Every structure is written in C-alpha cells, then in structure tokens.
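If I may wish for something, please walk me through the protein I am sending here so I can picture the backbone:
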Amino acid sequence: MKAIRHNPAAQRGATLYALVVVMTLLAIIIFAGLKISPAYIDNQIISNALNNMKESGELRTMSLRDIRTSISRTMTANGASWGSDSLDQIEENGVDYIQVKYEKRVQMFWNIDAVVKFDYRVQKSDD
C-alpha cells in the first residue's frame, strides 16, 4: 500500500473560487443594507419626533391633526418621505396611544423588492 503524501504548501489559504463567493455574498449584504437603511432612518426620525413631543408634554394636548402636521414638518425638514395616514390615535384600556403603523417598499434590483414593516405606539400621556 502506498502512503499518501501530504504537501502543506499545496493546502495554504482559500481558493480563488471560495474568495470570490465570500466577496460576492459580502457585497450583496452591504448592498442590501445600503438600500434598506434609509427606511430605518426615516422611521427613526418619526420615532424621535414623537418621543420629543411626549417628553416636552406637547403630545398630551395636541390633536391627531396637529401631531401629523408637526411630524410632516419634521420629515420635510429632514428630506424624508412618509404617509401621514400611517399615524393614528387609539385607546386601549382607557389609555390613549399614538400608533405608527406602515410598511416601506424598497426596490432592490430588477423586479425584487424588500418590504420593511414598522408598527409601534407611544403613550400620549404618562397618567
């Protein structure tokens, strides 16, 4: 029986094929992140605006229309887009909430889209 010779020099590092596959996957992940991140940034602007209104006490006295107008101004000032109909006022167990519920569709490439859903609420007052 012949002994199998082991040549450590021939087994050094990743192959070119493996390197191309890893780099392609990494590029796809980075591309997807860059395409989807503006939707999360826009949502963060809405969330921050609502939380700032709550902390200052304005949210408690504002009507839904005033809240929508204020957030629309904030979004316009930041160059972001949104649908004001995604903001609603709900009451649950005697507590008023401002609910933000919408989805953002982002075209990735050709006919492939990514859908990002946002659904959260902020208590209108701390009472």
Notes: Residues 16-56 form the longest helix (41 residues). The helical segments are 16-56, 58-61, 64-77.
